[in-house]
Design brief:
With 347 residues, the protein is an alpha/beta fold. The protein folds into 2 domains: 223 residues, DHBP synthase; 95 residues, 3-Layer(aba) Sandwich (Rossmann fold). It contains 13 helices and 15 strands. The strands form 2 sheets. An 11-stranded mixed sheet has the order 1-8-2-3-7-4-6-5-9-10-11, sandwiched between helices. A 4-stranded parallel sheet has the order 12-15-13-14, sandwiched between helices. Helix 2 crosses helix 7. The longest helix has 17 residues. The radius of gyration is 20 Å and the shape is globular. This is Threonylcarbamoyl-AMP synthase. It holds the Pfam family Sua5_C. Required for the formation of a threonylcarbamoyl group on adenosine at position 37 (t(6)A37) in tRNAs that read codons beginning with adenine.
């Protein structure tokens, strides 16, 4: 299969102007015809297919190598579309929509029956969000049908925050790639279950727990986020994910302890890597040392996390040791992704 790659660098146009661009109109037409289109969002790049076609959705799972029991998030271009696809939208959900849409927040709600069953893995609920990226909004509005879109990468690998990441993973497997430059936030959307009396955080992301509680009050946390022996309930979180090829370990302790682990691995003849922040780069010795941002500015760590993990693969690192972060604010999302990448291995 030939994958077309269209570069769209004038993202400061209005949504209506973007909708008229030939690249967007072609991509929307191809989506409606059942094809796969990768596109930028404010979080990471997504791989989209229309939610009404089981055949198109099946192509997402095939292209990514994603297990079919892992439900997908659907993306809408206008707030009012949620009432067409969700069976019940509570007052609390509406408050979150007013506060954070368009933006990196996904709501899990009971769905209506006109969604392809393989979008939801047969569940009675669906995860819905309205992205903030202008290219994504223009594409969704021009398509006119919600688009299911997990991250546009091979399943298990670090999520793509640039079109080049998508190209490396999925060239020849998808129909169109809309290249809109780098993603801004760098980690996926926050997912919150709104089907019960008390909202439940299923996946930390671009909206923090404190921000959510500032709008709806108490928010519980899915036990699967805390206890590695339990399976998380969020779309995209059931399996090992976000992982580089090398064996990865999160190190909770001082720099000397981390360095001792690196020295031991090097003595065994393994090519070693350290994931750190800009403040600590000069403290370590390893074959590859990659800073993923500034510890004093957590948003920079989130933004560069996945690109940093991919660099270890590019440089053939066999064993990776990652510094840990406090489980608060944006770092909550960073640690969640690191634990999934390390398959829960923390020392």
């Amino acid at each position: 299969m030939e994958t077309k790659r269209y570069i769209i660098d004038d993202i400061n146009l209005s949504i209506e102007q973007l909708r008229r661009k030939i690249e967007i109109t072609e991509a929307a037409s191809r989506l409606r015809a059942g094809d796969l289109v990768a596109f930028p969002t404010e979080t990471v790049y997504g791989l989209g297919a229309v939610v009404t076609s089981e055949e198109a959705i099946a192509r997402i799972f095939e292209a990514k190598g994603r297990p079919s029991d892992n439900p997908l998030i659907i993306h809408i271009g206008k707030k009012e579309q949620i009432y067409e696809w969700a069976q019940l939208v509570s007052k609390q959900a509406e408050r979150l929509i007013d506060a954070f849409w368009p933006g990196p927040l996904t709501l899990v709600l009971p769905h209506r029956d006109h969604i392809a069953k393989n979008v939801t893995a047969g569940l009675p609920t669906v995860a819905i969000r309205m992205p903030a990226h202008p290219i994504a909004l223009a594409l969704l509005q021009e398509t006119g049908i919600p688009v299911a879109a997990p991250s546009a990468n091979r399943s298990g690998k670090p999520s793509p925050t640039s079109a080049s990441h998508v190209w490396d993973d999925l060239q020849g497997r998808i129909d169109i790639l809309l290249d809109g430059g780098r993603s801004g936030i760098g980690v996926e959307s926050t997912v919150i279950d709104m089907t019960g009396e008390v909202p439940v955080l299923l996946r930390p992301g671009g909206i923090t727990l404190a921000q959510l509680e500032g709008v709806v009050g108490k928010v519980e946390t899915d036990p699967g986020l805390i206890n590695d022996s339990q399976t998380p309930r969020s779309p995209g979180m059931k399996y090992r994910h976000y992982a580089p090829s090398g064996e990865m370990t999160i190190v909770s302790g001082n720099g000397e302890f981390l360095q001792d682990l690196v020295d031991q691995a090097r003595a065994e003849g393994k090519k070693t890597g350290i994931l750190t922040t800009s403040e600590n780069v000069d403290k370590y010795r390893a074959d590859v040392i990659i800073p993923c941002g500034d510890r004093k500015e957590p948003v920079t760590v989130a933004k560069h996390l996945y690109a940093s993990l991919r660099q270890f693969d590019d440089r053939g690192v066999e064993v990776i040791f990652a510094e840990s972060f406090p489980e608060t604010g944006v770092f909550h999302s960073v640690m969640n992704r690191l634990r999934k990448a390390a398959n829960g291995k923390i020392v």
